[in-house]
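This is your field. Have a critical look at the following sequence-structure pair:

***
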Amino acid sequence: MSKENSTIGMEALKQVPVQVSVELGRTQLKVTELSMLSKGSVVQLDQNAGELLNIFANGLLIAKGETVVINDCFGIRI
C-alpha cells in the first residue's frame, strides 16, 4: 500500500462514528421492583460518589474518568 493510499485510508477511518457512553453504576432489580418504579424513584447503584466512572466506546471499556460541570452540563475528564 502506498503512503498516499494509507493517508486516504486513515482519513476515511477518522470519519467512522463511534458511540461513546459513560456508566454511572449498576444494580440488579427483580421484575416486581422494576415495575414499582415511578417518577421520583431512586435506584441505588454499586458505584460510590466520587469514584472514577467507566467510559465505553462501542461497548468496549476504554478509560476511566471523573465527572465535571461545563457551562451547566455534565462532562467527563479522562
Q: What stands out?
A: The first helix runs from residue 3 to 14. DSSP finds two helices and four strands in the chain.
